[in-house]
Design brief:
By secondary structure, the chain is α/β, with parallel strands linked by helices. The chain folds into three domains: about 15-145, Nitrogenase molybdenum iron protein domain (Rossmann fold); about 160-260, Nitrogenase molybdenum iron protein domain (Rossmann fold, 3-Layer(aba) Sandwich); about 275-385, Nitrogenase molybdenum iron protein domain (Rossmann fold, 3-Layer(aba) Sandwich), CATH 3.40.50. Helices cover about 40% and strands about 15% of the residues. It is built from 16 helices and 14 strands. The protein has helices at about 15-20, 40-45, 65-70, 70-85, 95-100, 105-115, 130-145, 165-170, 175-185, 200, 220-230, 240-255, 280-295, 320-325, 355-360, 375-385, and strands at about 30, 55-60, 90-95, 120-125, 160, 190-195, 210-215, 235, 260, 275, 300, 315, 335, 350. Strands 6-5-7-8-9 form a five-stranded parallel beta sheet, sandwiched between helices. The longest helix has 17 residues, at about 240-255. The two termini are about 40 Å apart.
Amino acid sequence: MKQTQAFLSTYTADVSGVCSALFELGGMTVMHDPSGCNSTYNTHDEPRWYDTDSLVFISALSEIEAIMGDDQKIIDDIIDAANQLKPAFIAIAGTPIPMMIGTDFDAIALEIEDATGIPTMPFPTNGMHSYISGAGMALAGYAKRMLKDSPEEVLPRSMNILGATPLDFSVNGSVASMKEFFEENGWNVLSTWSMGSSPEDLAKSGKAEVNLVISSVGLETAKFLKNKYGTPYVTGTPCGEKFNEFILKALEKAAGSKDETTAFPDIPEENRKLVIFGESITSRSLASALYLEYGICARVISPIETPDGILSGSDACLSEEDDITESLKGVKMVIGDPMYKPLIPEGVKHIPLPHEAYSGRIFRRDIPNLVKDITQYFERRLLNE
């Protein structure tokens, strides 16, 4: 019964991660799933749905088609839609039923691309992993298929921001604030993968002197661009004035050395009575900011896929409810989505920090923009205790 969740919800699935990562890039994304399942994506996972046009469809897989393995229907439907809509690319993402019946997405994509002449990318999602997996493979897949192979001229003091989706940063201006901050500090932001930038912006990515990975979603793309163009990368999310200075120094160091690095300072292991729940890079960045601003030592608990080398010391990746409950013994304060509140022991202070990928639209209006200054949100909540 260890995998039973009595109180906690689940994070956005990998298939929605694919849709989110590619939403603004001019392609057509198809979820291969029964009709109606796309409502989970467009009502809970995608805050841009009603304000921004995007070609996100569902195959409307029927029971008989699943039983008989009728792949021709999805092939014909996608070809017909693509011939009418002329997308820049086609992406196909899987869900649990196609996984169970062994759908050959690679073969389907090859047949569609041959018929339409449009780059078609299959993503082996299955609904059993989080958005980190799906969005990460979608951005890396886009980079592999859509970026030029020829070497690019490197522009001094230029950068890309990788891993920007509303699942981690919502639509509260955080990504725009990041771009504004770096440009104010002498960096030319060529693209933000993939919020607020056009496909033409992303096509310039090879000219960047350095890349900044702001969430785990962008890490595979950073590694690909490092191999393709030799672009070094820094890991860290802008968050608070003092930690932002660490990021600026790390960017300068990476640009000079051509090696990847993180912007995280060393945080003492003792007295980590504050726990932060969330995606690993954004949460470790917040922990760094709180340490630099207030001297508070926090432990990060990431309940979803966590790349190697991000967490350190007593930080942990815990996905089971029993393990998460155990991790809260002896703590004095918890920062995390309001949906973690049922697990927080009595007497332990909870500072709500809503996460779009966890609670969806429920607390969207309460998600803060922590890029420029964390004091407005945290100082009263942290220090007046």
